[in-house]
Every structure is written in C-alpha cells, then in structure tokens.
Amino acid sequence: MMNRVTVFNPYPIKGCWVRGALALQALALVALAIPTAAYAGQYGDIETFAAVPSAPGFPEGISVQGNRVYVSGPATAGTAGTGPSQVLVYKRNSGQFESTITVAGENTAFEHALSCNAVDRKQRLYTLTAQLFAPPEERKGILRFTKKGKSYLQETYSEAFPNLPSCAFGPDFPGACSLPNDLAFADDGNLYVSDSFQGVIWRVPPGGGAPLVWLQSPLLSGGGQFPIGVNGIRLDPSRQHVYFSVTFSAANPGVGAIYRVPLVQEPVAADVELVHEYAQGEAPDGFAFGRSGNLYVALAAANQISVLAPDGSEISRIASQAGDDIPLDAPANIAFDNARRSLLVTNHASFNPNPDHFAVLNVFVNDVAATLAKPSLP
Question: Which residue of 101, 107, 191, 365 has the lowest C-beta tally within 10 Å?
Fold first, then answer.
C-alpha cells in the first residue's frame, strides 16, 4: 500500500512553461516568501556558470560551501581503463576554476565513478564512489575530503555498500551491484544514501561506518534499459520527511516520481507517500528545496526543471531558450547560489553524450536554499 499526499498535477504536461502565466505564478509565490532579489533577470533565465572538461566529464554531484562549488564526476559507465574520478572546485562568485580533487585508491581497471556530494558544518566534503564489477576488496563507500592548505586530505568515511538480493541485475550478479547515487545528512549526523540499482535507502551512522538498510520497497526499484530507481534524496525543510525521486519505475519505466517517507527510525513501505508523478518519461533526478517551499526537480530526459509547490502540484517548467550558450542537457542535480538567488545545475549530458554540454548552468528562480542539515561530525 502507498499513501498519497493529495491530488496533484492539475495541468497537462505539454511543452515548456518558462515565461508566461505559470512562471509568473511561481515567481509571485517566491516573492511573497522572501525579499526581492538585487539581480534583475527574468524567472527561468539560464546562463553558463562553468564549463566542465571532457575528462572527467559527465558531472553529476554539486554542492556549495561558502565561495566554493564542488562538482563531482564522472557519473557514467565506460570508465574502466581511464583516469581516476575527480571533484572539480569552482569559485561561486565568478565560476572560475580553482582546483581539482583527484580520488586516490580507485582501481581504474574497473568501472569507477563519483556521483553526488555533500558538505558538513566543518566544511568537509563527502562524495559517493562506485566500483562496479570490482572485487569486494576494491570497493569503496563514502569518501571524505578535508581541506589542508592548498590540498585535500582523503579519508574513507563508510564501508562499501553490499550487494542485496534486490539487485536490478539479479541476486547472483557477480560484481558490485550497488550504485550509491545521492546523499543527505540529517541534523543528528545520520546520512541517508539512495542506491539506484538495489531499490534501497541506506543509513550511515554519525561518524561513518557500516551502512544499514533504512528503507526498502519495490517502489524504489528501477526498470527498463537503464534501471535507475531511487535517485535524488533530500530532507524537507521541516526535517519531518525524507524526499526521494525514482527515475525509471520498475513497474513502468516511463513513469518517474517524487515520494516522501517520515524521518523515523524504522519506516516501512506503507509509510511511503506519492508527492508527484511524472508519467511522460521525463526521468526525475536530483532536486533541491527553496526557502519559498518550492521543490526544484531536474528532469533528465525532458531537459527541464520542474517546479513543485509545497502541496506537490507542478506550478512551472523551466527549459532552455534559443539564445542560451549551453542548453539544459540531462540535468542531474541542483544546488543553490543564494547570492544570485538561482539554481546551479549540473548538465550530465548523458543520453546523447556531447562534451560541449558538460557544464554547470545558472538558472534564475528568485529563491534561495532551504537550510540544509550540516551536522558537526567527529
């Protein structure tokens, strides 16, 4: 059984809604919640924040810490025999490239990747690493990087994510099935991690260690050619629920959704509530909450940003315009640039790979981030 929050999506999804009545409605909702921005752009304007080089390429993870923007990748298959994964560091106020954090200890003979990242109160960076097909001793879980002068100290924060019978490729899959995709801290230091190939959300205790299954359900499993199930994950601003996206549902790969589940010690499948359904193959991926209460969702297959009101109804779509330098191309994840009241969006460019589209885009929404949990961890 699955609970439903309310009746959603009263508008048919036809084309993009960037400027016009719905965009103005979204802008009005934001304006009621927070002061007017100094930036005089139009809602939905898209600019290039920074180009991402083809090596590593396929950027996915993004987080903002002060004047630094951390962009992690490559989040793709086909990396066996290539160089190590990297986190690229940019200056938030200018988009200027600052430095590269190169992951040490990967066995680059096997598939290797970085997906999403997060920061804590001590300004330490956490990234999810995957070593698909690698033997157990080669696998990693969560890495933590602490800035020391001009370099970063790398530590292993969690043990590797084990294989489960729910593996999308079958219970006897010979390699590492787990695809840790996104991560979100709670205020108490627990870290919640989506596992896209195993239909599970893991919980890693404060300070790291062994990941434990927190929520598992067929609703979280993926299907189709790219069986990406549970994907983006965030706590809502009230810290009462964990929200997560499912990109390609196992029951119908053309359907994706945003769900939520109460932030309790041991949730069960019956606790899962549907927030919003995308039934046209749009492939919801990462997302972020604004202080307005709106939820900004990257639609990887639609090349758009969906904006959901607090009740789950869709109030606008943001899409690229003809004059944009780089168009939205399989947007993967979202962080806020509060100073510009805009979204920073990673252009994954994964469905029809185009290195010219590897980038971080700045999307003006006249909103700022809801406060993220940044626990003080040991």
Answer: 107
CA atoms within 13 A on the CB side of 201: 34
Q: Which element (helix H / strand E) includes 215?
A: strand 212-216
Set out the domains of the chain in order of their start, with CATH numbers: 3-13+60-310 (2.120.10.30)
Contacts of 339 (CB under 8 A, 6+ apart): 92, 93
Least reliable range by pLDDT among 22-36, 79-93, 162-176: 22-36
In 3D, which of 305, 215, 300 has the Cα closest to residue 262? 215
Q: Give the span between the Cα atoms of 262 and 12, in whole angstroms.
A: 29
Of the pLDDT bands very low, low, confident and very high (cuts 50, 70, 90), residue 1 is: very low
Q: 334 pLDDT band (50/70/90 cuts)?
A: very high
Q: What SS3 state is found at 25? A: helix
Cα 358 to Cα 116, 183, 301: the distances in Å are 16, 22, 15
219 φ/ψ angles, rounded to the nearest 5 degrees: -65, -25
Q: Which residue, chain included where needed, has tokens 């190939």?
A: 197
70 φ, ψ to 5°?
-100, 125
Say if CB 127 and CB 117 are below 8 A apart.
yes
Backbone φ/ψ region at 238: left (φ over 0), alpha (ψ -120 to 50), beta: alpha
Mean confidence (pLDDT) of the chain = 89
CA–CA dist 239, 235 (Å, integer)? 6
**pLDDT tens by residue, 17-48:** 333 333 334 333 333 344 444 455 799 999 99
152, two tokens: 């970063």
3-state secondary structure of 27: helix
The better pLDDT of the pair 27, 53 is held by 53
